[in-house]
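User: Sequence for Glyoxalase family protein below. Tokens please.
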Amino acid sequence: MLKTTGIHHITAIVNDPQTNINFYTHVLQLRLIKKTVNFDRPEVYHLYFGNETGDPGTVITFFPWPSLPKGRIGTGQVGVTSFAVAPGTLPYWENRLNQSHIDFTHITRFNEKSIQFSDPDGLLLEITERSGLKENINAIQGFAGATLFSAKPNKTAEVLEEILGMECIGQEGEYLRFKARGHLGQIIDIKLSPTVRGLAGAGTVHHIAWRAEDLKQHKSWHERLTTEEYFPTEILDRNYFKALYFQEDGGIQFELATDSPGFAVDEEIAHLGQKLMLPQWLENRRGELEKTLPKLG
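Assistant: Structure tokens for Glyoxalase family protein:
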């Protein structure tokens, strides 16, 4: 059976790119690992943040649209994105958020402690203490997981189990929990209670991407999704991974992304995120794009 190891990346929509960079690098201390454009709408940046080497399972990405109206978090979306830290490090993050005047709440779910807060655009985030991580460091080590706000929770659960190969490991209150076989981004909760219908816009998640180990597995998933009539897109070249997209029955946009070639394919690890990187087919528009895209510090 095809089984994902967990989250590859999560992509959200925001407004101001500089505000986005300031928050995720200065407050959350993630690394800006790639500054490129939305390959489908190259007049918009695509910013990637993650660990020092941009490993799958650590990367959150953004499409900054300065004039886009605010969205509404609700069904048909990833409701909460959770980052993983070592046990005992939540006080460090509480202090850090307090210093930045960011309100947060405490949450305990499935015996794990978290703090929940919002980024400047209203995206719901959590920092979760997760056992099995590197100890004695305060840094975010990748994704803990995500909470899905599905319009049809049972149908979404079927996709997680039967298509993505996750295991249902329990229910606590209004949350059903699934586990993938990796060590980062491997815990997914589905919120079973109804919520408002989500509206796309700034401050909402655009899609969640699951890991495919290699091209062979990726193609097998495409065949399986086609057979099961999920109508996946063709396999697309995103330069840093191959991607295919489909919408599950709960309305959430899913992607399957390959682990390779990774973010060092066009930049050295030491210099990730320092220059505007474009795919080969957009290089002839570099002058135009550098002139029209917002200037970033």
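Residues 215-227 form the longest helix (13 residues).
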